[in-house]
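Lab meeting prep.
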Amino acid sequence: MTLTSPATPPTAREGVVEVDPERWPDVARPPRASSARTAVARRLVERAFARLPLRTASTAEAPPVPEPRDGREPEPTLTLHDPDAFHRRIGADGLIGFGESYMAGEWDADDLVGVLTVLARHVDELVPAPLRRLRGAWVRRRPEADRNTPDGARRNIQRHYDLSNELFALFLDPGLSYSAAVFDPLPEPGRRLGDGEFTAAQHRKIDRLLDLAGAAPGTELLEIGTGWGELAVRAAARGARVRTVTLSGEQRDLARRRVADAGLADRVSVELLDYRAVQGSYDAVVSVEMIEAVGAAYWSDYFTALRRLLAPGGRIALQSITMPHERMLATARTHTWISKYVFPGGLIPSPEAIARESEAAGLRITDDTGYGDHYAETLRQWRERFLSQEPAVAALGFDQVFRRMWEFYLAYSEAGFRSGYLDVRQLRLTAGREAS
């Protein structure tokens, strides 16, 4: 499915977005669901929401007046514009339907991150325990076409990262870093950072990774997952010789221009190449939030490649989003809204999975630092920048459904970190008992 649409945005009618059925077939109309299944979904949703610190409303009713509870912040409100379609989607497709319903404009929230954070914190309570055992009977399996074979990985990466360099430039910092920043200190709640401050926080993250990898003058450094080249430029500025690989043609082309503009083309090569095809031996290997795109079936290949490419005495610096192990196992078997619309083929690993796979490949973790609250703040900065650039996003050809999809993705991710459902970790790995 193509995610871009004509530049003219559709208009909303009574809170519901006009949807192009050719571009968004599963969003354009609620799926057919039996009346019994819809009734069960309605009952489960109403029962779950009634127990949560969350208000619900309908546009057919007067909205509830938010009032602080015992000095705490008011509860966030989820407002249904089309309750029947909302429950039909959930009855047919569960959480995929929940996200598609937002894309269609069938519900809104006065605090989208707040609503999603409440749901993430109580995710294990949303479905009664007896019904959880029947999960396999109603959740969708991941499409076989999304597997990260060499060809599949290229398609999956292109579906996200080749959307438009201009799109990403509208909400990332000027260095175009698309991973968790490290703040010192964390900004005050609600404060939007200037470009220089945001880039400094991203450089703080990059510098810590380069320190973990031991990048210095003369270091032969391999980067798996180029992004738009900021880490490669910063490593080369230290005097390292950098080889960086990506599967995104858009990223490769822009990264090459940025390397040349920095006057570092003699020290950095940027290649369109799968990590499995890389040959050579490197003093340092760095990979930032790329493992999430590998897929569980290929984690062994990934860590085996890291070990094979590492020179004796070398170091690996890895940055990864993580989730609890049991949730990872459930997610691995499920086609989720994120895997359908944002990161096809992707899976966030657990710390246990990383430890197991790295050890099996002959690697050991010698440094491990988590900073999930910094990722929550990074996502807030991205989300607020994205929302402030809505006219520019539309001018690039991204329709209202895409814009709501992207807002939901950023808010959903932020809620994951704010609730503690997700974390992000920087790891140093070495080979066996070699240098730590």
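Slide two material, second protein:
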Amino acid sequence: MTEHRLDPAPDTVTDVFSPARKPVLTVDAGDTVVVRSLDASGCLERQEKPGDKPPTMINPSRGHCLTGPIEVRGAEPGTVLAVRLKALTPGDWGWTLAGKDNALTRRLGLGDGPPTWLLWELDNEAGTGTNDRGHTVGLAPFLGVIGLPPAEPGEHSTIPPRPVGGGNIDCRELVAGSTLYLPVTVPGALLCVGDGHAAQGDGEVSGTAIECPMTTEMTLDVVTDVPVEGIHAETPAGRITFGFNEDLNEATADALDAMVTWMQALYELDRATALALASPSVHLRVTQVANGVWGVHALLPTGAIR
């Protein structure tokens, strides 16, 4: 198998998903790609002080600055792209923004105030990030956006996650050692990645994580035999299924529906028994509240059922 490298450049980045966009790299199934992505805003330099506006690669940007698309030979609608994340290495800086005007910040009494920035120094060797106020957190890097374009013609926003194709999933469990399964939407898959997060809690409650550049090593496979339809993952934390919907109840039901189906296959159970077994073992978590479409994931932790 071949290893490829893909760096961000004006002709290798995009701020939309589009089935018509030509691939910037073509690989065989089973190949490994080392991809560098800029931060979500496409900044070419770090902020030196809160609120700085450093130069960006895409200006003005309509969405996340993503690297790609990557074409995978043999990926066709009806197959599934397995994105095996082998290593994720943040850059040495990052930022977090809170207080942008939206329904949640207004509910918290922050909609009328100026936004607040935290600037972070990231130490990969120590596994920590320290901000300009002196607070230190542990790093658990992942990509906020791993996605395929919708099959429908036109340019599609990178901001909302989609039940088919994924995109801005923002799931903190998709760390190195994870495999994300994306049903293929268009010939060649046309995978785009970016929106590096050095650390994030469930929910991404301010609307941003520690946003940072990222170097990702990933192997891309095409598979046909998967236990559940839709987007799902195997991670160091356990098996994960997802729900995405503007209605939180529907997103929750979709995530649980897929997990119950997966448990039926794993343990050879009828559906009601699988649901009963899920109740003491499966965690439902709000993946993110930041993208206009609610994300919920169901997690069956590794070793929870023996």
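Talking points for slide two:
The chain has two domains: 3-223, 232-301.
Residues 248-267 form the longest helix (20 residues).
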